[in-house]
Amino acid sequence: MSALPPSSPEPAPALPVQVLGVPPAQRPSAASRAGWFALVAIAGAALLSSVMLWQRLSSIQQQLARQSADSGANAIEARALARQAQDVARDTAARQAVMESRLSEVALQRSQLEDLMQSLSRSRDENLVVDVESSLRLAQQQTQLTGSPEPLLAALRTADQRIARAAQPRLARVRSAIARDTDRIRSASVTDVPGLLVRIDDIVRQVDDLPVANAVPARAVDEPPRPAAAATSPAAAWWGRWRDAVLAEARGLVRVSRIDHPDAMLVAPEQAYLLRENMKLKLLDVRLSLIARQNDSARADVTAASQALYKYFDPASRRVQAVATQLQQVQSQVRTAELPRIDETLAALATAGAGK
Fold it and tell me: Is 79 inside any structural domain?
């Protein structure tokens, strides 16, 4: 940059400023100077706006920081409140469970109290119906266990007497049902198990006296005596006695009989005890079948005992014939009829208990 000579009357110009790449040697004109001022003004305005924008951005950042801090605090507070809410919910659930258990206990106590009040408020007729029904059911179970209808008949008679003493018209149908069930039970054919057991025990006691089929028959007691020999000489008398003794021994050695079962004749004499014990076991099987209410099995066991009796024992003996007759009677008394029931009476009692 060169300076002007001092003799020049013009004032010294200001130092040129290099703006926007304009070389200092060039002197700007008035238009370019105005452009420069405009550019400077624009730059100042831009700078001012930048400063204001920076300040506004700073304020926004501060506001965002404050909001973020507030949000973090709110989140922490929300988590604390959530934990409190969970604790309150658990406490509420525990209290609800306790209340439900207490409510169920109260409901149970209420139902028990209602049942007690209903039982206390029953009338005399209702108590009578309940007692009669329970006694009849118990008697029916006893009849099924013993096989005898007597417990059931006795319970029906007692029930009829109690209802008759009550003198209630609505129980008349119950008395009619009891009368019909009583007639049906009396007319039913039921096996007399106790009587049959006594008869079988009697037959078992007689088995020891039964003669087996291969036993040598004893001489009959009522055999007519031989006529006495006339008075003769001693030699003739001795001869007659010797002859009679020989004939008696011959009759004991030789026996003529009919054999229907060859197996019975092959039994050794010492096996007669086993035959009798086997016969007792068959009769005890009949007894057990009757006790177990197996009538078909009892009849089969009686048939087997009768066959063994005719096969191994002497059918011509009166004792064997008597035992065979008793076995036939037992066979005829074992029936397959079911025990009677009192369903009609129980239905009438249920109707009366319902108040219909």
Answer: yes
The answer to whether residue 301 is domain-embedded is yes
> 156 and 176 in one domain?
yes
Six-digit token pair at 299?
């009849």
User: Cα separation of 9 and 316, whole Å?
Assistant: 194
**Using one digit for the tens of pLDDT, what is the confidence trace for 1-41?**
344 444 444 444 444 444 444 454 445 567 777 888 888 88
Phi, psi of 313 (to 5 degrees): -115, 160
Q: Provide the H-helix boundaries in 270-317.
A: 272-291, 295-312
- Judge contact between 275 and 267, C-beta under 8 A: yes
- For the chain, what's the residue count? 356
Q: What is the pLDDT of residue 189?
A: 65
Task: Take residue 90 and report the two structure tokens written for it.
Answer: 């658990």
SS (H, E, C) 176-193: HHHHHHHHHHHHCCCCCH
Tens of pLDDT along 51-63? 888 888 888 888 8
Could you give the number of structural domains in the chain? 3
Q: Which of 121, 145, 171 is the last residue of a domain?
A: 121
Whether residue 156 sits in one domain with residue 206: no
Lowest mean pLDDT among 7-16, 78-87, 290-299, 332-341: 7-16
